[in-house]
Design brief:
By secondary structure, the chain is α+β, with helices and mostly antiparallel strands. It has eleven helices and eight strands. It is globular, with a radius of gyration of 17 Å.
Length: 229
């Protein structure tokens, strides 16, 4: 399986136990696919994990990650502010610390859990306009005014509570090489995407960083650098 690793292979690459790799998969820190009943891991996500800078600290959980993304997307505005005192304290600490673009990407990589599928082209084309799906990556970036070419991708961000329903409605089959990518998140969280609308611009820029297209990755990095300056 080119570009895909077993749990044991990923553990060896990362220098951790297989149990720790499974924890990383469950937390959405590594991209997962399926071959029959077996989970396999995207080699690129293992490489990014291995090369992430140690100064970034532990990745933020979804509740704080989406608030930070909302703040980065709406600088100087009354963006999402948590009512929970502990969350407000953690938010202040994160925002006052200086981080590079690579470190922010590492901190915010748990914003959603990736799922990849195969779907019939005649059906999945409707997925882009489904009101339960928020466009991500280049489509979301273009919707926010970034000068990027919209790639012919299929998928987006979906509330994890609607994931199974969408799988059934579009007859999606788990496939490690599939063209359909759905990123599941908790839509009840403050600052999280609203179904049917593009994800926040900061999240779109973070998506672009992972693009194999050099121009898209550069556009994402440039936006984040400006937002953080």
């Amino acid at each position: 399986m080119d570009d895909w690793l077993s749990v044991a292979e990923a553990a060896q690459r990362l220098g951790v136990s297989e149990r720790r790799v499974r924890q990383l998969l469950d937390a959405g820190e590594l991209a997962v696919g399926w071959v029959g009943p077996y989970r396999v891991i995207d080699e690129a996500s293992v490489r990014r994990r291995a090369s992430s800078r140690p100064g970034a600290g532990r990745p933020l959980g979804q509740p704080l990650a989406w608030i930070v993304i909302d703040v980065l997307s709406h600088p100087g505005s009354a963006a999402a502010r948590p009512k929970d005192r502990r969350l407000r304290h953690r938010l202040r600490r994160v925002l006052v610390e200086e981080h590079s673009v690579a470190e922010w990407a590492s901190l915010l990589r748990r914003r959603a859990v990736q799922h990849r599928y195969w779907g019939h082209p005649g059906i999945v084309s409707d997925l882009r306009v489904d009101r339960r799906v928020s466009s991500g990556g280049a489509r979301a970036a273009a919707a926010h005014g970034l000068d990027v070419s919209v790639v012919d991708d299929v998928g987006g961000y979906v509330d994890h509570a609607a994931l199974h329903e969408i799988e059934q409605d579009f007859a999606l089959e788990p496939d490690v090489r599939g063209d359909v990518l759905l990123c599941a998140y908790d839509a009840s969280l403050l600052g999280a995407p609203i179904g049917g609308k593009p994800i926040p611009v900061a999240a779109a820029a973070l998506d672009l960083l992972d693009s194999p297209d050099v121009r898209l990755a550069h556009a994402g990095r440039s936006w984040l650098e400006r937002a953080l300056s």
